[in-house]
Structures are given as C-alpha cells and as structure tokens.
C-alpha cells in the first residue's frame, strides 16, 4: 500500500525554522554589518515560538551565535531551542535549498530536491549538499531525507494544506531548471512526490530585481485554504502595473476545489527602493513567514509599512504580527521568507 502524502500549509504546527547564516564568503561580504542584525532579529523572533536550526560555514561565528542565542532563549525561559550545525554554504537562501517536508502515513518525510541557484545563475554546490549535512548531524532525528532528482525551490510553491498547489509558470517551466520536462511531466511529478491533487499556475506577475524567475512567495500567498493575499500595484505609470494587473485577473478566475472563488486581499505596494547603482530592489510584503502563533512580516522603512502591518493583523487575527526591517536583505534580491524554511511539527525534537 502506497503511503499517502500531504504538503502542509505554512500555518500548520511547526517544530523549527531553519536559517543558513551569512558569512564573508557569500555575496553578503561587504554588507555583513547590515545584514547580520536582520538575521538576529529573525532568530530571536522565531525562538519565542519554536526551535531554531542555524547552520554556518564559519565555525567560530557559529559558536558565538549559539552562545548568544541560547542565552537569549534561556533568559526568556525557553532553554534548549537553539540547534547549531557547522556546514558549508554558498549563500543564505534557506527557503530554496532547505528541505520540503511532507506528511505521510508513516510520519514526516523531508524531500531533498536539487538546487541549482535558480537556473545556474550563481554557485550552488555547497547549498545543494546542505540538507545532507543537517541530516547527518541528526537534526531531523529518524525522519528520512529523501533525494528527489528534480530542481525545485521552496519559494516557488505555495500549499493550502488540502491538496492545492499555487505556483508560477515563469519559474517552474524555465528550461534552466528541468529542461527535459514539460508542464504535464512536472505536474505529474509534483502530484506524486508532494501529494497534491491540483496545481494553479500563474502566468503573469514579476518584481524588478528578482533573481528567482517570479517565485510565488514574492507575489501571492495562501493565508487560509479559501483566501489568497497578493501583490498589487496601483500606479499605472509603474513598470509593474500591467503584469500585476494581469496576475490579479488570473487570481480572480481561479476556483477552489469545490468550484467557489477565492477570497482575495491585495497587499500594499511599497515605494520604490533602489541600490547604489540605481537598480530597483524587490521589496514585497508577500514575503512573510507564518510560524507558531505569529507572522514575521518584512518591512522596509517606507510609509506603506504601517498599512501592511494592519492588513496582516486582519488576515491573521489569532497570530502576533512581528515586523522586521528587511531593507538590508533586498540588496541581495530576497526578503524574510526567502531566508527561512519552516520544519513541520514532529521533526525537530531536540
């Protein structure tokens, strides 16, 4: 008898959140002083609600982090929540190189998809091996780490926990990821390994400065099985207006498994943020992380932050909203959800 699989929604109970800590050997080298405080803020927010798994290539820095964060957790009456693992890494985007966990009738299984840095855009070999380092260190206990010979990043898929997957065609159908597979073959594979019944494909929507080929977690997110929040651009003069308006129309046409339309909530559009060279950076409020009892919401020190906090409180009335200034993260073209990966309940039990 085949074990039935389910890909949990992000709001399902969690045991831990995974962070791959930046180090001077990454593209963060000249921004370490700016970006480490963001990671520290995320780490401390997570520790209030669940375990934290940190890996870092620099062992001395990892030891410091372990001491600092364990002291923080113990000071808040939460001892034993920090798990540190020395492991090489090319970069810090745990959402995309971390394991994707499915529930099965035999218990949780962690899927180790291939990672090739969003279609071979950057070095990736260390990141692709990181999950095996964590498994060998015992982070996942006795739960299996199953290799899957398919390139897939966690930021490219969004689950409602009830068999529906939301994704983008621009990402999953990019030839630099799985060139031998067409849409039908990809659907069949994802249905088998993730246990999903149907896939909703968005064909429009993008953010300038995004390296991921339109990951769904920058554009549209499930906030309940019948409710999707999404990025909306109200400025007709903005370069994003047409693509995001077309994406909104697609979302309006989507139907739930029972045939009813989804509830839809647009998210604020932050003022443009540019780097030193004038390149627009991908600031998005859709890149939030749902954890036990809270929402970690990226904010960017722009006027729209307050509205984003208010909307998120309306969307998740039973969770604490924890804003974290992620402006430093977007200088490397990602945000809060991109640097985290949740690990469902029952996996990390240290």
From TrEMBL:
GO MF terms, alphabetically ordered: agmatine deiminase activity; protein-arginine deiminase activity
Keyword terms: Hydrolase
Source domain of life: Bacteria
SUPFAM superfamilies: Pentein (SSF55909)
Keyword Hydrolase attributed: yes
One record GO biological process: putrescine biosynthetic process
EC number, as in UniProt: 3.5.3.12
Name of protein: Agmatine deiminase
């Amino acid at each position: 008898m085949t074990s039935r699989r389910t890909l949990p929604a992000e709001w399902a109970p969690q045991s831990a959140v995974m962070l791959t800590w930046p180090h001077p050997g990454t593209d963060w080298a000249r921004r370490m002083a700016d970006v480490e405080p963001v990671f520290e803020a995320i780490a401390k927010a997570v520790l209030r609600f669940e375990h934290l798994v940190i890996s870092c290539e620099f062992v001395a820095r990892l030891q410091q982090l372990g001491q600092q964060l364990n002291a923080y957790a113990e000071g808040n009456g939460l001892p034993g929540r920090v798990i540190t693992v020395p492991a090489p890494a090319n970069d810090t985007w745990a959402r995309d190189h971390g394991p994707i966990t499915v529930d099965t009738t035999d218990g949780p299984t962690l899927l180790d998809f291939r990672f090739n840095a969003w279609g071979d855009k950057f070095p990736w070999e260390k990141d692709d091996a990181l999950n095996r380092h964590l498994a060998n260190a015992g982070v996942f206990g006795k739960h299996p780490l199953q290799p899957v010979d398919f390139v897939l990043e966690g930021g490219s898929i969004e689950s409602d926990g009830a068999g529906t997957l939301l994704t983008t065609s621009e990402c999953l159908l990019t030839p630099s990821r799985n060139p031998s597979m067409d849409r039908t073959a990809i659907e069949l594979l994802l249905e088998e390994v993730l246990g999903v019944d149907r896939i909703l494909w968005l064909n429009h929507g993008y953010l300038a400065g995004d390296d991921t080929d339109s990951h769904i977690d920058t554009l549209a997110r499930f906030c309940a099985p019948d409710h999707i929040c999404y990025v909306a651009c109200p400025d007709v003069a903005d370069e994003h207006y047409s693509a995001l308006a077309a994406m909104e129309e697609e979302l309006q046409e989507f139907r739930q498994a029972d045939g009813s339309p989804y509830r839809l909530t647009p998210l604020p559009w932050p003022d443009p943020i540019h780097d030193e060279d004038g390149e627009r950076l991908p600031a998005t409020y859709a890149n939030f992380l749902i954890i036990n009892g809270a929402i970690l919401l990226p904010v960017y020190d722009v006027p729209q932050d307050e509205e984003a906090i208010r909307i998120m409180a309306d969307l998740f009335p039973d969770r604490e909203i924890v804003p974290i200034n992620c402006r430093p993260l977007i200088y490397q073209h990602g945000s809060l959800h991109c640097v985290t990966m949740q690990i469902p309940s029952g996996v990390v039990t240290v």
